[in-house]
Design goal:
Strand content: under 5%
Largest sheet: none
Length: 101
């Protein structure tokens, strides 16, 4: 299973906080993309549709200007399931950490 090193108990707050408005950056930093011997050794990053979704999500987070205290409007986004999308019953989804299913 993929370990999320950024969310370990000893990770400094600044290391985690820098990704609040950058979900794509978080995904790239948190997973061992293209590392020999790891689950994602043959992957260089998310699929194109996932990248677009993560970048759009980051823009929506920035638009709301969340300060960490005061509530903001929720982000409502959808993604259609197409060929290759990791739906809950697909073999790809079975390899994803539970947090992404």
């Amino acid at each position: 299973m993929v370990q999320l090193q950024l969310y370990s108990a000893g990770a400094p707050l600044s290391r985690k906080a820098r990704y609040v408005e950058d979900p794509y950056g978080f995904v790239m930093a948190a997973f061992p993309w293209d590392v020999a011997g790891k689950e994602l050794e043959n992957e260089t990053g998310p699929d194109e549709n996932q990248i677009v979704f993560l970048l759009d999500l980051g823009e929506e987070v920035k638009l709301r200007g969340f300060n960490g205290i005061d509530p903001v409007m929720p982000i409502l986004m959808t993604a259609t399931s197409g060929h290759g999308t990791a739906s809950p019953t697909s073999p790809t989804a079975a390899r994803l950490p539970k947090v992404f299913r």
